[in-house]
Design goal:
By secondary structure, this protein is an alpha/beta fold. It has one domain: P-loop containing nucleotide triphosphate hydrolases (Rossmann fold). It is 41% helix and 15% strand. The protein has an eight-stranded mixed beta sheet, with helices on both faces. It is globular, with a radius of gyration of 18 Å. The structure holds adenosine-5'-triphosphate (ATP) and magnesium ion (MG). Magnesium ion (MG) binds next to helix 2. Magnesium ion binds at residues 36-37, 60, 65, 139.
């Protein structure tokens, strides 16, 4: 795979909380269906396993599927819109994860339309969550529409999920432009800290020049990569079972674990997935890097 280790390695993520307030991270993308909700679920668990108190908020009003990915769909009674419409208290709508005890979840509503979210109400909600949680992960809806703007407007940091295809990369470039111009931080002359997650990479196709390499993606987006998640057939089953792959030693699960550590500021080199390495060899290599 063509990847210059130098460019991609040693991305040191910094925490930008000036006080004890939680950090709002928007998990977003240009194109839909690239793995935002999967990333939110896995990283929420990953951060909570590092003793951080985390809440994942589903902003995909009308569609919601983060609850299924987290295996919490049957526990939902109230949702984020009920909270904003004062039909319940915040604490009544928040669901604790069954296995990851430091992880909490605030569901999207399934039926109401997206326009119910209002900027000030979202700000009020996030300010409240910041007092209680170390990390607030906002799962963006697909596409650049009203729900999307709510997730990026108050973000301190953004993780932009891209798949190595030109359409996904090009649409992400638009999202980066919006983050740099419309976010609250941009309005204050500050910058939202941005990192890229490359998802569903297939090293065999990169070698055959049938898929963009990580370098290609980075050259276009000109942002640091915080992790590369390979295509992993285990993700589909994990989604259906409500057990994200980070709970197991799968290739995607390990990649998400490492991204969680980088979010916390750990200086872990970005992995390179080579086409000629088998699954076990890749795992071995990842563990060796981790120990070294
Ligand atoms: N690394 C991966 N390997 C294989 N399949 C994956 C991977 N990541 C995500 N997927 C699959 O891709 C599909 C889309 O994932 P997901 O729902 O997380 O995307 P999304 O960006 O949240 O979509 P939307 O924009 O509709 O909200 C799902 O079927 C998921 O199982
Ligand atoms: Mg989603």
């Amino acid at each position: 795979m063509q990847q210059s280790g130098q460019k991609l390695s040693h991305i040191k993520a910094t925490n930008n909380a000036a006080d004890n307030n939680g950090i709002v991270i928007a998990i977003t993308s240009g194109k839909g269906g690239v793995g935002k909700s999967t990333a939110t679920a896995n990283l929420g668990i990953g951060l909570s396993q590092q003793n951080k108190k985390v809440i994942a908020v589903d902003f995909d009003i009308g569609l919601r599927n983060l609850d299924m990915i987290l295996g919490l769909e049957r526990r939902i009674v109230y949702d984020v819109v009920d909270v904003m419409e004062h039909k319940c208290n915040l604490s009544q709508a928040i669901v604790n994860h069954k296995k990851a005890k430091n992880l909490y979840f605030l569901p999207a509503s399934q039926s109401k339309d997206k326009t119910v979210l209002d900027k000030d109400k979202v700000q009020h909600l996030l300010e409240k969550l910041k007092l209680d949680f170390d990390y607030i992960l906002l799962d963006s809806p697909a596409g650049i529409e009203s729900g999307f703007e709510h997730t990026i407007f108050w973000a301190d940091r953004a993780l932009i999920v891209v798949t190595p295809e030109i359409s996904s990369v090009r649409d992400s470039d638009r999202v980066i432009g919006i983050l740099d111009s419309k976010s609250d931080k941009a309005k204050q002359g500050k910058e939202v800290e941005k990192h890229i997650i490359i998802n569903r990479l297939r090293p065999d196709l990169v070698t055959k020049h049938e898929m963009m390499s990580c370098d290609d993606v980075q050259d276009i987006l000109a942002l640091p990569i915080i992790g590369v998640v390979p295509e992993d057939e285990k993700v589909v089953g994990a989604t259906n079972n409500g057990e994200p792959t980070i709970f197991t030693k799968t290739i995607s699960g390990l990649a998400y674990q490492r991204i969680a550590m980088r979010i916390l500021g750990e200086d872990i080199p970005i992995e390179t997935f080579e086409a000629n390495l088998s699954f076990m060899e890749t795992l071995k290599k990842i563990f060796t890097i981790k120990k070294g």
